[in-house]
Amino acid sequence: MNKKVRIAVLVSGGGTNLQALIDAQKKEILKSGKIELVISNNSNAFALKRAEENNIPFEIIDKKNFEERLKEILQSHKIELIVLAGFTAVLPDNFVKYYDKRIINIHPSLIPSFCGKGFYGIKVHQAALKKGVKITGATTHFVNEIIDGGEIIMQKAVEVYEDDTAEKLQKRVMEFAEWIILPKSVEKVCEDIIEKIKIK
Ligand code: GAR
To answer: What is the pLDDT tens value at each position of the chain, 200 positions in all?
Structure first.
């Protein structure tokens, strides 16, 4: 069997992006990597139900000794790629450096607009509507020490409508941008990782 990159998905909430990855795996849009583990910092995250329903092992890590536990769990599952899919906590600098080019994040705007500290979830769409932009979208990027500042992998634009509410816009950005570019980005990065292993 061909090598597949071992993926952990970090979640905090509903997990629709996790679902998009699971569906992509079933459809073989994601075929160079496999979701081996789901990790949450919130024991009530609906994302955990999605993991359970799809027979994906999951772990809940609380705030105490978070970084230490996270490292332990990732190492014991031999994780090679981390995907932040609606994960609310900021990862410590040394952790991010250790996993250089091995952590992907999905952000619900066209970076560099509406990103950085304090811009997450619905707040991003509220800010976009307040500014009156006519186009927004989603971005996947590698994670570095700067919040939402790492190298961009993919972006997809979505139109803003006159009668949009933040909730309507959030749903459109998810459906027409996030759930499409996240699986594609993860597949692309997995292909690149496998290619690098072959060259070595
Ligand atoms: C998604 O819209 C994701 O882009 C956003 O949180 C939502 C999680 O939804 N992430 C951020 O704002 C990160 N800065 P989900 O749990 O249904 O995937």
So the answer is: 689 999 999 999 999 999 999 999 999 999 999 999 999 999 999 999 999 999 999 999 998 889 999 999 999 999 999 999 999 999 999 999 999 999 999 999 999 999 999 999 999 999 999 999 999 999 999 999 999 999 999 999 999 999 999 999 999 999 999 999 999 999 999 999 999 988 87
Q: How many angstroms separate the alpha carbon of residue 89 from the centre of ligand 1?
A: 12
Any catalytic annotation for residue 107?
yes
The DSSP code sequence of 179-198 is: HHHHHHHHHHHHHHHHHHHH
- The pTM assigned to this predicted structure is 0.97
Which residue do the tokens 């990027």 mark?
141
The whole-angstrom separation of Cα 74 and Cα 46 is 21
Q: Which residues have C-beta atoms less than 6 Å from ligand 1?
A: 11, 13-17, 47, 85-86, 106-108, 120-121, 124, 174, 178
Whole-number Å distance, alpha carbon 121 to ligand 1 midpoint, is 5
Which position among 77, 107, 125, 141 bears the catalytic label? 107
Domains, the chain, in order of start with CATH, read 5-199 (3.40.50.170)
